[in-house]
Predict the structure.
Amino acid sequence: MYILKAEHSFDSAHFLANYEGKCSNIHGHRWKVLIEVQSEELVSGGQLDGMVIDFGDLKRDVKAMADFYDHALIIQRGTMRKETLELLVEDGFKIIEVEFRPTAENFAAFFFKCMEEKGYNVKRATVYETPTNCASYERNEVR
Ligand SMILES: Nc1nc2c(c(=O)[nH]1)N=C([C@H](O)[C@H](O)COP(=O)(O)OP(=O)(O)OP(=O)(O)O)CN2
Ligand SMILES: [Zn+2]
């Protein structure tokens, strides 16, 4: 089995609603997204001879996915007062609402599915919230 990895980081703020402790306050992370794709086979012949896929394509897609969240305040939909949210948006702040609690685990599953939707045979997605803490999402069956 061949495993290829590509990673990209983004800087964003978030908070955990209904969390008892400092993480319920708005705070920032340098999030790192590490995507691993797998294949039993290599391409034979042509430009991609001896490769699973071109690293350039994988890197481009991981970067595009991560960059969307860069320098934003990421909010779980429904966890900020409507008036507060509207004022932040009106004042030009980049707010991204997500449908899940913005934990490393949920982001790992979310990015896994995003990459699958782009057609990659994803082995694992890992999201680092801090340099020493990360969560991974993977499926055990091979497509
Ligand atoms: N399993 C998870 N636990 C926590 C998550 C998470 O996504 N998954 N997230 C948080 C918070 O977002 C928090 O920012 C991380 O907290 P912490 O580990 O305390 O990070 P610090 O770098 O601030 O740690 P210090 O050792 O206090 O500097 C919480 N838990
Ligand atoms: Zn956090």
Q: What stands out?
A: The pocket of zinc ion (ligand 2) is lined by residues 14, 23, 27, 29, 129 (CB under 6 Å).
